[in-house]
Design brief:
The complex is a heterotrimer of chains A (about 70), B (about 550) and C (about 475). Chain A is mainly alpha-helical and about 70 residues long. Chain A has helices at about 1-15, 25-40; one strand at about 55-60. Chain A is built from 2 helices and 1 strand; from the N terminus they run H-H-E. Chain A is elongated. With about 550 residues, chain B is an alpha/beta fold. Chain B folds into 2 domains: about 10-300 and about 375-460, Amidase signature (AS) enzymes; about 305-355 and about 475-525, no CATH class. Chain B is about 40% helix and about 15% strand. Chain B has helices spanning about 10-15, 25-40, 50-65, 105-115, 155-165, 180-185, 220-230, 250, 265-270, 275-290, 305-325, 325-330, 335-345, 350-375, 400, 410, 440-455, 485-500, 505-525, and strands at about 45, 75-80, 120-125, 145, 145-150, 170-175, 190-195, 215-220, 260-265, 295-300, 375-380, 415-425, 430-435, 540. Chain B has an 11-stranded mixed sheet, sandwiched between helices. In chain B, strands 4-5 form a two-stranded antiparallel ribbon. In chain B, helix 5 (about 155-165) packs parallel to helix 6. Chain C has one domain (about 5-470): Amidase signature (AS) enzymes (Alpha-Beta Complex). Chain C has an 11-stranded mixed sheet, sandwiched between helices. Chain C is globular, with a radius of gyration of 20 Å. Classes of the chains: A mainly alpha (about 70), B alpha/beta (about 550), C alpha/beta (about 475). At the B-C interface, helix 11 and helix 14 of B face helix 10 and helix 12 of C. Strand 1 of chain A pairs antiparallel with strand 14 of chain B.
Chain lengths: ~70, ~550, ~475
């Protein structure tokens, strides 16, 4: 249960970081979703070639390049 | 030849074309100067002497055989040590890449080689074109040739120092937030950040995907135009590269400024990040000179410097953090302290902050259009501090405290060049910046060239000689106590660092904590209301199959 | 196909309009009557634009009679998901947050349809802001599935799916960020086409995710989707993503054979990566035989794991959705429905690095898939892993616990078309997806159309009387 309490404390701080105020019910739902979010984030590789560009690129307004 | 030390590319090219100067002679003289002078200033990480000699010979033979390639044929040049060079170590001045030997050339490096340029070596940089100046890197900080106790500015330190000292007539640097223009300004040379997408970034170790630019650093604007000519152009290997017609940059220099409308961004050096009296006086004089040359000048307002800075820092630090994420998690101690002082705080940026920065960037880029419509070029001051600061007086938190004079144009993506516009009483170079609309690189060069020739500052050269006494320096002090912070902020900082997988010792935590209030404030400022149809500046686009 | 005006396809209706054997006034009236009769139960519409529609129908009739026939959408009724801005007509995203919101300008796609002479009948139900649903705490109830009113419609373009399936309109526009066109198309037994990112401008469409939002058509047949797509595709400077590409005549893809076309079956999506209902797998097996019989060459292809595509989509979309809703989440959080809040809040605390890494993953997935696609003309996979569930049995937590198949083609940004490939024993529609290379909508339409014509599924319509029972 202390893990659970730790996680809740962490989520309180995370939402403060986001400057969002939630009701108790919304907060519980946020906590409930957290493991699913963690699972999704585990699919995102953190180790990749330094040459890998993001899919989005900066496009100047004059540039109609496709 | 006795005056090869400060010979420009244009001058050398004219002599080489007429076979009055041999590339071998020029390269030998530069190698001699490097050997004699570089130990004082540490501009080079690697000198490729043997290869340069061989290339010079080959160039000489080709030219003798009547196969002259153009104004870079037989001309020595250097590359910031983040440009990939096949078979030549490319370190980014980081322990992380200390043994890195690429198997390909960066596109821009290959283009200069194709134009006949002779690679003399790899030039010093702040770590990963970001963290510095630093005494805790594999290679020592480059010293300013105008005063060895002072820094060069960065991150293209070696490029700025080597060109100013006459060790090389030209070099390539990279500019994510000012890394070409900063050292150009503090070393008294010309540094051009071309339009985003004009010069390929392929093979240049990324700092930040959305803000990185590759460009020339030279003693004169004309030399910058010559180098830009060689490296500008579409490269399918760089997703940000743009297909545009490339004008004759050198030919465009002749236009002068008569009748051109110049927008003077006075509030940048008077209010947004106030310059010293010397800076302001030099700017007044520069504006008067431009006016006397026939330019129509008018004071104008750009969006606040801080607005650009927020966008750039949140965007670029996020991308940099992502690009180094594994190393930051696993070998944090291998980065220099200044790199960490800049980069750790990216863990405090939310995905939302990043997207808001991207949207704010679109707003800023769009807002500039009204100025591009009315003015041929914009004029701002160089470093507000005036001359370069002492290397041992560097403060790591300075990065966060004030907006930078260079960064607005990393955000706009338009061209910007820094050139010398005078000197401090203590003999250090001052600078002004000419900026323009995206793809108006030729116009920016033209205005800068007209000023440079009329003002004549470029003829002054630093006093550094082989017998100049070395100046031993102690490393600057790092902050040694955790700054005051309320409990809520401290919890956020600790939680974010932990969530990001950072394992910080006390010193590293102090570096993060110093940056934290600034970083969190940036996120808050970027939250201001935005219309739903304000898209991020970075766009997802597909090419047809 | 049908003599009932409400089941006329766009192609059929257009032909009759052109020949003046059908009056747009009659068609519109028939649909308004139909809507009046059934929408009380179906909740497909949030608002009707009956008066304007009648007036436009009269005008269209006059123009056509006068010989100025504009083309296959002239006089054709349609409806829009209520995130498409319509000048002077409330556009609410089915949210309390947007009650009373009346845009001044039409969305680009709406302008295109007006220019083509089509007739807007009304605005359609959506999950809140094209994200959270089904919800019962919004200004309007969720739309009901005409194949079984207790079953989920799919979303978020729920009203578009329902209205087309139930014969309330022959065609509609939806939007698709993670599957929001194809998911309701699947559960409602119609055709939903998410085109290539950049083909259709999103200007004037309430955004969910700048990097993922896509506008597209939903209709009863593949041909009707081709007709609608032809009208709304094309460059628009107001959408930064808009691609300046030539727009072919998509109808030339209709009625062709598919001999020799190479179809890559992404079998692992629905057999390994995502547990999929047996009837869907069986229907796909049958469909593959059908396509082989039509002369296509069929071969399995292995892409990256589905979860990679889905996680990438989730991170980018949810962070961007939070950026879009940041102001309102801070100042009026409780004006959002619970389902929307549940979905969006986790994105508020993603780190910038999470977002950038997802963007880098996206480029990697596209590059990898491009290579794997080289030997194929189109890909084929299941649209959704289940037949429409009963709404009562759905839980909030399943939203994040389980990702769909559709998001893969959002991450790729490539065209993907969902179409009916049979029915479950309970009479609920089954669906497969044909996806293609960027900007190769024509080949996707060609394969889907050939399949549709070779199979009987378009002859079956929902029995609204029985659905209510």
């Amino acid at each position: 249960m202390s893990n659970d309490a730790d996680a809740k404390t962490r989520h309180v701080i995370e939402l403060r970081w986001a400057a969002l105020e939630t009701t108790a019910r919304q907060f519980d739902q946020f906590c409930e979703a957290a493991p699913h979010v963690a699972a999704l984030l585990r699919r995102i590789p953190r180790e990749r070639s330094r040459w890998d560009d993001p899919a989005n690129v900066f496009v100047l307004p004059s540039d109609k390049r496709r | 030849m006795s005056d090869l030390r400060h010979i420009t590319i244009a001058e050398a090219a004219a002599l080489i074309a007429e076979k009055r100067l041999s590339p071998v002679e020029l390269v030998e003289e530069k190698l001699r100067l490097i050997a004699a002078i570089d130990p004082k200033m540490d501009a080079f990480i690697t000198v490729t002497a043997e290869r340069a000699r061989a290339e010079a010979k080959a160039a000489e033979a080709e030219i003798a055989a009547g196969r002259y390639r153009g104004p870079l044929h037989g001309i020595p040049f250097g590359l910031k040590d983040i440009f990939d060079t096949a078979g030549i170590r490319t370190t980014a001045n980081s322990k992380i890449l200390i043994d890195n030997v690429p198997d390909r050339d960066a596109t821009s490096a290959a283009l200069i080689a194709k134009a006949g340029g002779v690679l003399m070596g790899k030039l010093s940089t702040w770590e990963f074109a970001h963290g510095g100046p630093a005494f805790d890197l594999p290679f020592p900080p480059t010293r300013n040739p105008w005063n060895l106790a002072h820094q060069t500015g960065g991150s293209s330190t070696g490029s700025g120092g080597a060109v100013a000292a006459g060790l090389l007539p030209g070099a390539l640097g990279s500019d994510t937030g000012g890394s070409i223009r900063g050292p150009a300004a503090l070393c008294g040379i010309a540094g051009l950040k071309p339009t985003f997408g004009l010069v390929s970034r392929m093979g240049v170790v990324p700092n930040s995907f959305s803000f990185d630019h590759v460009g020339p650093m030279t003693a004169t604007v004309e030399d910058g135009a010559i180098l830009l000519q060689a490296i500008a152009g579409y490269d399918p290997a760089d997703p940000t590269s743009v297909k545009v017609a490339i004008p004759d940059y050198r030919a465009a220099l002749a236009g002068g400024v008569r009748g051109l409308r110049l927008g003077i961004v006075r509030h940048y050096w008077e209010d947004d990040n106030p310059g010293t009296d010397e800076v302001c006086a030099a700017m007044d004089e520069a504006v008067r000179l431009l006016q006397s040359l026939g330019a129509v000048v008018e004071d104008i307002r750009m969006p606040p410097m801080q607005a650009f800075y927020d966008v750039k820092i949140v965007g670029a630090e996020s991308e940099l953090f992502a690009n180094h994420e594994k190393e930051l998690r696993e070998r944090l101690g291998d980065f220099c302290a200044d790199f960490l002082a800049r980069s750790l705080a990216a863990c405090l940026f939310r995905g939302v902050d990043y997207v808001q920065a991207q949207r704010e960037r679109r707003r800023l880029v769009a807002d500039m259009q009204r100025l591009y419509d009315r003015y041929d070029a914009l004029i701002t001051a160089g470093p507000p501090s005036g001359g370069a600061g002492r290397l041992d007086a560097h403060r790591t938190v300075a990065f966060w405290e004030k907006p930078s004079w260079t960064t607005p144009f990393n955000v706009t993506g338009g061209p910007a060049i820094s050139i010398c516009n005078g000197f401090t009483k203590t003999g250090l170079p001052l600078a002004l910046q000419v900026a323009g609309a995206p793809f108006a690189d030729a116009m920016v060069l033209r205005v800068a060239h007209a000023y440079e020739r009329a003002a004549g500052w470029y003829t002054r050269k630093p006093p550094l000689e082989a017998d100049t006494p070395a100046v031993p320096l102690k490393p600057y002090k790092l902050p040694d106590r955790i700054p005051d912070m309320d409990r809520a902020t401290r919890e956020i900082v600790e939680t974010c660092a932990r969530n990001a997988g950072l394992k910080l010792n006390e010193q590293q935590f102090i570096l993060l904590a110093e940056a934290a209030p600034h970083a969190l404030a940036m996120g808050r400022r970027l939250r201001r209301h935005k219309a739903w149809d304000l898209h991020p500046a970075d766009v997802f686009r597909l090419a047809p199959a | 196909m049908s003599t009932d005006l409400h089941y006329l396809t766009i192609a059929e209706g257009a032909e009759r309009l052109r020949q003046r054997t059908l009056s747009p006034v009659d068609w519109v009236e028939a649909l308004l009557t139909r809507i009046e009769g059934f929408d009380g139960e179906l909740h497909a519409f949030l608002a009707l634009t009956a008066a304007a529609a009648r007036a436009q129908a009269v005008a269209a009739e006059r123009e056509i009679v006068a010989g100025s026939y504009r083309g296959p959408l002239h006089g054709v009724p349609y409806a829009l998901k209520d995130i498409y801005d319509t000048a002077g007509i409330p556009t609410t995203a089915q949210s309390w947050v947007c009650q009373g919101r009346i845009p001044q300008r039409d969305a680009f796609a709406q302008r295109r349809l007006v220019d083509a002479g089509a007739i807007l009948v009304g605005k359609l139900a959506t999950h809140e802001f094209a994200y959270g649903g089904p919800s019962f705490d919004l200004p309007a109830p969720p739309a009901r599935n005409p194949w079984g009113l207790t079953h989920f419609t799919g979303g978020s373009s729920s009203g578009s799916g329902v209205a087309v399936a139930a014969g309330l309109v022959p065609g509609a526009l939806g939007s698709d960020t993670g599957g929001s066109i194809r998911h309701p198309a699947a559960h409602c037994g119609i055709v939903g086409f998410k085109p290539t990112a950049g083909l259709v401008s999103r200007a004037g469409v309430i955004p969910l995710s700048y990097s993922y939002d896509t506008c597209g058509p939903m209709a009863w047949t593949v041909e009707d989707c081709a007709i609608l797509l032809g009208a709304i595709a094309g460059y628009d400077a107001d959408d930064p993503q808009s691609a300046d590409v030539p727009i072919p005549d998509y109808r030339t893809a209709i009625g062709r054979d598919i001999r020799g076309l190479r179809i890559g079956v992404v079998r692992h999506f629905f057999e390994a990566d995502k547990p999929t209902d047996a009837p869907i797998k069986a229907a796909i097996a049958t469909a593959l035989k059908e396509l082989a019989a039509l002369g296509a060459e069929i071969e399995d292809v292995t892409l990256a794991p589905l979860d990679d595509f889905a996680a990438c989509q989730w991170v980018i979309t949810c962070a961007e959705a939070n950026a879009i809703h940041d102001d309102n989440l801070r100042h009026r959080m409780t004006d959002y429905g619970e389902n929307f809040r549940y979905r969006i809040l986790p994105g508020a605390t993603l780190s910038a690095a999470d977002y950038v890494q997802a963007q880098r993953l996206r480029r990697q997935l596209i590059a990898e898939t491009r290579q794997k696609m080289e030997g194929f003309d189109v890909l084929l996979t299941a649209t959704v892993p289940t037949v429409a569930p009963v709404v009562e049995n759905m839980t909030l937590s399943s939203v994040l616990a389980s990702r769909g198949i559709t998001a893969a083609f959002n991450t790729l940004g490539w065209p993907a078309l969902a179409l009916c490939c049979g029915f479950s024993e309970a009479g609920l529609p089954l669906s497969l997806t044909i996806a293609g290379k960027p900007f190769d909508e024509a080949t996707v339409l060609r394969v889907a159309d050939a399949y549709e014509r070779a199979t009987p599924w378009r002859r079956r319509r929902p029995d609204l009387a029985q659905a209510a029972a």
